[in-house]
């Protein structure tokens, strides 16, 4: 059995319009091997308290209803919402996100897998953040989201490794 469930493929891997240049593309992924158990990563990625530790777009995260969280963007100061849908068996967390609780789009995922499944030491995990670019998202906003995920994955690793007593890199 394949240890990583398939991800829905975006409609294109590159810019849809040549004028989009480096801001183009429809999907972004970033991953880190963390010296912490999968269970710790899972809790960090699936709870409001966990999101509050690393998510730059949902600072001061709090739960408002079962699986629905709200927080404040460090970029704009505006409020945002996310519905967390977690499939522990598959190691997939889906985040439907947006500015209004009744207009969420499922465009962010996190994946968590045992490091040992990929030949890494026992007690490690591989954490991946994926983002899909919706039609109409401006290139500068897409670039900012990708840059935020690059920082957030290191925040996730730092939080996990500090909690595990490793201290991280």
Named CATH topology:
Alpha-D-Glucose-1,6-Bisphosphate, Chain A, domain 4
The total count of strands amounts to 7
Mean pLDDT: 87
> Reading side by side through the largest sheet, how are the strands ordered?
1-7-6-5-4-3-2
CATH architecture: 2-Layer Sandwich
Q: Quick one: CATH class?
A: Alpha Beta
Enumerate the spans where pLDDT stays under 50 for 5 or more consecutive residues: 1-21
Tally of contiguous helical segments: 3
Radius of gyration: 16 Å
How helix-rich are the residues, as a percent range? Answer: 10-25%
First-residue to last-residue Cα separation: 33 Å
Q: How many structural domains does the protein architecture include?
A: 1
Series of H and E elements: EHHEEEEEEH
Give the name of the CATH superfamily. Answer: START domain
Describe the structure using short key phrases:
169 residues, alpha+beta, Alpha-D-Glucose-1,6-Bisphosphate, Chain A, domain 4, 7-stranded antiparallel sheet, 3 helices, 7 strands, 22% helix, globular, disordered N terminus
């Amino acid at each position: 059995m394949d240890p990583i469930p398939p991800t829905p493929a975006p409609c294109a891997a590159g810019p849809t319009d040549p004028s989009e240049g480096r801001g183009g593309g429809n999907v972004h992924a970033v991953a880190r091997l963390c010296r912490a158990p999968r269970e710790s990563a899972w809790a960090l990625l699936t709870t409001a308290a966990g999101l509050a530790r690393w998510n730059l777009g949902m600072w001061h995260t709090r739960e408002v209803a079962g699986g629905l969280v709200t927080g404040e963007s460090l970029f704009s100061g505006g409020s945002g919402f996310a519905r967390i849908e977690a499939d522990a068996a598959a190691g997939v967390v889906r985040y439907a996100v947006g500015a209004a609780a009744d207009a969420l789009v499922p465009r962010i995922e996190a994946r968590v897998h045992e490091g040992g499944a990929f030949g890494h030491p026992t007690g490690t995990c591989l954490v991946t953040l994926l983002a899909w670019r919706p039609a109409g998202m401006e290139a500068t906003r897409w670039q900012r989201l990708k840059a935020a995920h690059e920082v957030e994955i290191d925040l996730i690793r730092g939080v996990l490794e500090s909690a595990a007593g490793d201290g991280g890199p």
